[in-house]
Here is the input.
Amino acid sequence: MLHINKLTKSFGANVAVDAASVAVEQPAMIGIIGRSGAGKSTLLRMLNRLTDATSGQIMFQDQDVTQLRGSAKRNWQSQCAMIFQQFNLVPRMDVVSNVLHGTLNRRSTLATMFNLYPTEDIHTAIEILDRLGIAEHAPKRAEALSGGQQQRVAIARALMQDPKIILADEPIASLDPMNAQVVMDALRRIHEEDGRMVIANLHTLDTARRYCDRVIGMRDGRIVFDGTPAQLTTGVARDIYGADETFSEAATSTEIEALNAEVVKLAQVAESA
Ligand SMILES: Nc1ncnc2c1ncn2[C@@H]1O[C@H](COP(=O)(O)OP(=O)(O)OP(=O)(O)O)[C@@H](O)[C@H]1O
Ligand SMILES: [Mg+2]
Here is the structure.
């Protein structure tokens, strides 16, 4: 389905992604982990053609993504929607308009200028918001929502494009554990219910382990691990994160995740009470 072949990106002498190869045969939920500067964002950006590869190839369903130009490239970009750590919403605009922004690439400039959205699209937007549990916030300004709610608006905007792939660059890095879980649950559900491929850069090992079918570990631009969460042993993690010093950073995330697990338990207890 998705074949990444020796994909490389250099910035001058710095090789950000070094001959990365990945084959995905069916829509999976994939987590990419690695220390800061490992090349995770650059890999996602190349996938969505936000940045061009220096060499190598990306094939999606027999289409050479690396060669796409003009409208074919824009079409590809709407097929693989991107979600960012900082949500990238228009803060003063209402939630539903932010979501409708996801249809921009298929609307005329005139319609965009006058904020004319087809009624059908507005209904779809509300349905998607409802699915993500935030329909009641539709008329509010995006900036009035919590981080977790804003990230769900960003997911709704992505879904508005009806993408085959959702690329998420550290989608929960700015969220507290409770909101992080809500957002990861939403991504997981979208993967399972819609059969969409989700590829997420994650900075905590445990999130990758818990939510993903497959984990890819990057170090210095290279893919050093590609396997199931069960295969991701502490030894492998040490290898991905390199120096022990950085690994202790991961240990801190583990603590956050442990706390997160406690929160879940408390919520379950509260629910059953
Ligand atoms: N536009 C750019 N110009 C020059 N160098 C860049 C550019 N973007 C990324 N790099 C370099 O490429 C390498 C990989 O960066 P990248 O952002 O992909 O890492 P990352 O794994 O996403 O890190 P983080 O976890 O901090 O987000 C780094 O050495 C970075 O400095
Ligand atoms: Mg990054």
Notes: The longest strand covers residues 14-24. The domain at 2-272 is CATH 3.40.50.300 (Rossmann fold). Residues 245-251 have pLDDT under 50 and may be disordered. The pocket of magnesium ion (ligand 2) is lined by residues 40-41, 169, 201 (CB under 6 Å).
